[in-house]
Amino acid sequence: MCTVFTHAFVGLAATAAFAPRGGVRLYAVAAIASAAPDLDVLLHGLGIQYEDAWGHRGMTHSLLFAAILAIGLGSLVRGGSSSRAGPGWFVRVALLFPIIASHGALDAFTDGGLGIAFLAPFDHTRYFAPWGPLPVPHFGLASMFTAYGGRVMLLEMLWVWLPAALLAGVMLTTRWRRHRRTG
Ligand SMILES: [Zn+2]
What we know:
This protein is an all-alpha fold. It has one domain (about 5-180). It is built from five helices and no strands. It has helices at about 5-20, 25-35, 65-75, 90-105, 145-180. Helix 1 packs parallel to helix 5. The structure holds zinc ion.
């Protein structure tokens, strides 16, 4: 995993970029859904091992899980304020699917642990990206406040937060300019 903050930030930045008027609920759901695959660590308490199908970076990090969760959440949450219709069902699902799938993709760029079972439950092979610039954070909030935790955060900001914020900034500026031109 990357840190929960980084996954949540990606959810927020993607919503700002592609559904900026989605409403507070859609932003909140995007942030939480983006980090949700890591809830699989709770299954370890039930005796499930890291390398098992439902182990960490297994089933919940797959593309199928991202699709099911996106459809479920997209159906539950309605974006937009009461005075303005929010994005429709298809837009919400089309936004949430890549946000949730980005979780496994980002984890694949870390330098430790097991790879990601993108194709589970059809194929449980664990995959890594060919390059791992992101150090794996240690479990627990206290580890954030160590020198290693600081390095993890700094590198995640450089490789993930910065490009995500730039994308959101460019998309928002383009939209604002187009809006101004069309009056
Ligand atoms: Zn993860």
